[in-house]
């Protein structure tokens, strides 16, 4: 079955620094979605990538879909305390209904 | 418009007991699913449904049953609870599988099996 690997599992960041989390799939994807879960909360949808090589930005967050549609990344610039939480990628293979989540990257911020 | 509603929020069961986690959505979503979340494991798909009367297994279906008699409701049944089923359970729905629409999550049910 499909495997979705997400690294790193934990990211401790100094406020103001940048970081990147990566998501890799064993199969070609129809699309990839990113979610954020605040501590004690539920996952909330951030963005979806569909096209090969697609890049989308949301303020300080930049999302990229790989050319082969097997990997994706989330880059956050100038990290703030509001960025604390766990970021999940969720991948849907071609011709499949199922959305499989990575293990998530849990971000903590040092002020 | 309440979105996705899960009940109960917390539940403690003894080994061997059975129970049903309720999930309802009022958005006329076609797709509904159940995930469990364990530390370091992310969200693992238990069961999903692409429409009323249609269900299928996800990654970790053993010990759980589902049904989808209406578009709105997608209950998850634990047949005989085991300590390994201690977890946080999330129900999630999306408008359509065909349009790659995003998942809307409920607030979760924290289940402890002793």
Count of individual beta strands of chain A: 11
* N-to-C order of helices and strands of chain A: EEEEEEEEEEE
Ranges of chain B with pLDDT <50 over ≥5 residues?
Answer: none
Radius of gyration of chain B: 13 Å
**Percent helix among the residues of chain B?**
under 10%
Tell me the total number of β-strands of chain B.
11
Assembly level: heterodimer
If helices are DSSP runs of H or I spanning 4 or more residues, what is the number of helices of chain A?
Answer: 0
The two chains with the largest interface, and their residue counts, are:
A-B, 25 and 25 residues
Helical fraction of chain A equals under 10%
Helix/strand structural class of chain A: mainly beta
What is the approximate shape of chain A? Answer: globular
Distance between the termini of chain A: 41 Å
Tell me the series of helices and strands of chain B, N- to C-terminal.
EEEEEEEEEEE
Describe the structure.
The complex is a heterodimer of chains A (111) and B (114). Chain A is mostly beta strands and 111 residues long. Chain A is built from no helices and 11 strands. In chain A, strands 2, 4, 5, 9, 10 and 11 form a 6-stranded mixed β-sheet that branches. Chain A has a 5-stranded antiparallel β-sheet with strand order 1-3-8-7-6, with no helix packed on it. By secondary structure, chain B is an all-beta fold. In chain B, β4 and β5 form a beta hairpin. The radius of gyration of chain B is 13 Å and the shape is globular. The mean pLDDT of chain B is 94. The chains are: A mainly beta (111), B mainly beta (114). At the A-B interface, β4, β5, β9 and β10 of A face β4, β5 and β10 of B.
């Amino acid at each position: 079955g499909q495997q979705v690997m997400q690294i790193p599992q934990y990211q401790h960041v100094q406020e103001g620094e940048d970081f990147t989390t990566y998501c890799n799939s064993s199969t070609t994807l129809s699309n990839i979605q990113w979610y954020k879960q605040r501590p004690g909360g539920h996952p909330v949808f951030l963005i979806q990538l569909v096209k090969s090589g697609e890049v989308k930005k949301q303020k300080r967050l930049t999302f990229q879909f790989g050319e082969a549609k097997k990997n994706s990344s989330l880059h956050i610039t100038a990290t703030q305390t509001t960025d604390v939480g766990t970021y999940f990628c969720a991948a849907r293979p071609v011709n499949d209904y199922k959305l499989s989540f990575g293990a998530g990257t849990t971000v903590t911020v040092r002020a | 418009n309440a979105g996705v509603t899960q009940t109960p929020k917390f539940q403690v069961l003894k080994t061997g007991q059975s129970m049903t986690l309720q999930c309802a959505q009022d958005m006329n979503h076609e797709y509904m699913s159940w995930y469990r979340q364990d530390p370091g494991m992310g969200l693992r798909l238990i069961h999903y449904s692409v429409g009323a009367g249609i269900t299928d297994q996800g990654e970790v279906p053993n010990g759980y049953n589902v049904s989808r008699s209406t578009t709105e409701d997608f209950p998850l049944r634990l047949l005989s609870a085991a300590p390994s089923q201690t977890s946080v359970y999330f129900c999630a729905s999306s408008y359509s599988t065909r349009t790659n629409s995003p998942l809307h999550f409920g607030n979760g049910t924290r289940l402890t099996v002793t």
